[in-house]
Amino acid sequence: MKIVSWNVNGIRAIAKKTFFTDLELLAPDILCLQEIKAMDNHVAETLKPLNGYHIYSNSAVRPGYSGTAVISKIKPLNVTRGINSERHDTEGRVLCLEMETFFLVNVYVPNSGSELKRLGYRQDWDKAFFDYLKALEKKKPVIVCGDLNVAHKAIDLARPKANYNKTAGYMQEEIDGMDRFTEGGLADTFRHLYPDATERYSWWSYRAGARSKNIGWRIDYFLVSQSFLPSVKNAFILEEITGSDHCPVGIELVL
């Protein structure tokens, strides 16, 4: 089984580019999308050309903002939206598919913002989301994928010294939130399989030709329950696929 995650920075915008061709090249069994920036009806309309897929979405209350969607060849046992929190469930950030042997959680973690105005909220979110995942894990293993909006280690961004404790995505508070996941039983699949892989990023600023210079950040992840790690055959980052400021990332499973 191949599962791919991609922050598309607007489902309607990327659909006008090479999204459908890219989908054929990716050939995923399940594709998880973040930052769809569209209401559920717009997602359904945009993805109407697709055949043979089950499509689910979780839109933000605010139009044109945030949101998640999943395109799956496999019909899940159940689909839930949000983390059962009035405070955290207005922005369409979590979409969970219950499969036979695992929960697949598609997430778009809040950004702390250019002036770090949401850093406090982000810390609350990280804790609430972790508690939500651990509750799921009591039933069956979890796979968490999406834009986690944090570079976990210095190896995960091109300029760690210049950004540490200055820039959203590499604040110690955000790193602590990621530590909670990895120390709490969720493994970073790419880093588990490729501990020393350098200059492998999933997001690049649109400014100053960052992508062509590979001045990037690895902020898109697949985390899995430790018990599920033996099922992970490979993890990959597809930097060559454009259309968004993020590139797709994914895992291959042997079930």
What's the layout of helices and strands?
Elements lengths: L1 E6 L3 H5 L3 H8 L3 E5 L5 H7 L7 E5 L9 E5 L5 E4 L12 E5 L4 E6 L10 H19 L4 E6 L12 H4 L8 H12 L2 E3 H5 L9 E2 L11 E2 L2 E6 L6 E6 L11 E5 L2
Parallel strand pairs: 1-2, 7-8
Antiparallel strand pairs: 1-14, 2-4, 3-4, 5-6, 6-7, 8-12, 9-12, 10-11, 13-14
Helix pairs in contact: 4-6
Summary of the model, kept short:
By secondary structure, this protein is of the alpha+beta class. The protein has helices at 11-15, 19-26, 40-46, 119-137, 160-163, 172-183, 189-193; strands at residues 2-7, 30-34, 54-58, 68-72, 78-81, 94-98, 103-108, 142-147, 186-188, 203-204, 216-217, 220-225, 232-237, 249-253.
